[in-house]
Amino acid sequence: MLGGGGAGRQQAAERAAGDAPRGAGKRAVRDFYSPSVLDDPYVVEQQLRVVEALELSCRQFGERCSDARKARERVEENRGR
Known about the structure:
The chain is mainly alpha-helical. The protein is built from 3 helices and no strands.
């Protein structure tokens, strides 16, 4: 291995796989060839993580509540398409 980068890349890949969203299955990244971003399971999971974080902030600190409501509405709207 020239440059010694092989081990570092393997470790980075393992860390990234450990950070995969819940229920992501085998794929932990966006499918760039997917014709629709909104139908990509990875993108949907990331959107849900953001919504949950906003809702948690609203519950715990009373902050960003309107953003949390709007984000939840948008995610639900996209699911119902």
